[in-house]
Amino acid sequence: MFENYKVIAVTPAGRQRYLEILIPYILKDRGIIDEYHLWVNTSNVSDIAYIKSFPEIFPDFIKLVWSPLTPNGSASVYPFYQYCTEPNTIYIKIDDDICFIEDGAFERLLRFRVAHHEYFLVYPNIINNVICSHINQRLGNFSIETGICNYDPFCEQGWKSGIVAATIHSAFIEKLKQGSLNDYKYNQWILHQFERTSINFVAWFGEEFAKFNGQIGFVDDEQWLSVFKPKEINKFNAICGEALVAHFAYCTQVKYLESKTNLIQSYKEIAPLFSVQETLFFESDDWTIIRDNLKLKDINYIIFPDWLQSEEVLCAELAHILRSLSNHPQRHRMTLLIDNSNIAENDAELLLYSIIMDLMLNEDLLIHDEFQISPIGQMSETQWELLIPEINARIKLESENKNAINTVVVASVESITECNIAQLV
For 53-80, what is the mean pLDDT? Predict the structure, then answer.
């Protein structure tokens, strides 16, 4: 929620190679975003499998919306807007190749949106958006040597040129490293000529779209939303210059950027990591909170991986544990508790996520649909005392975090039964 408005982000989806960068940003801002809707707009089997995995992991947050049309790129997006008309709701459409969202950008965009009901659509300041590129080049944020970005939505340089796009992204990443992103920022830019502006990332009020039932009159949703409808109702669109995001590529730029640069890898390295499930940092010793947050079931096992060992060995052993339990006839009654006390939270999250996704996509294992996985995080001795009686067994690993195990032994008034995974399957 934001200032009593429900916030729903939507993405026409999508290409896995880009969603792998975007979705961590969305998950990071779950405190503001109430729901994330993936508009399934692809016929690529691999991409669909990837997209379908997310509601299984985040059932209360990520939802799939299926197209009534045969997917056909941007030409089949327009019917989805009919689902974006709830009152007291702000919708934010985010293209799947948005590759950077600055910390606080959602909040700044939403604050601007709420403060300016007079605008139809509100954009953030989008790196590699033709109109924004014109503004940012005029502000001196990237060189004119590879070309000048004109105030034209189909500019030969700003829209068509992969070389210019590489210049734009490279300059942006350099300023990001230098901590100089404020160079891009300005208050607002009003699109008072009803100029066509790429809708890579836009926000609107649900009640505004309810006035026309979300029925977009053209297949070209960008022309209709940025030009036709604003003219018809005489409401300008505007750019919030303080909210900074980056768009990877127009169709005209993709081949060059993906084959001639390593920019997509650079954005992957910049993107936040995200958890399969929130790692828990308890602030209460109340048993009910521990039970509910860890989602304990009738059968609760615990493992203490040594996260400092070889990643290859660690991943293989964790995958074996998850694979074995996911095939167990009592899996629906199980929770697997995973100690992650000797690794940075984000590193553990990334590793667990990669293992789970590999099992789900390559071995068709619906892990979270069958049994619960709960990273533990840091816990006090008192919390361990409350938890230990509910643990059925510790599954022994080849390499374990002995310090964590010793801590549990000290806190425990009773021992935890030990077993091997082979004894359970």
Answer: 89
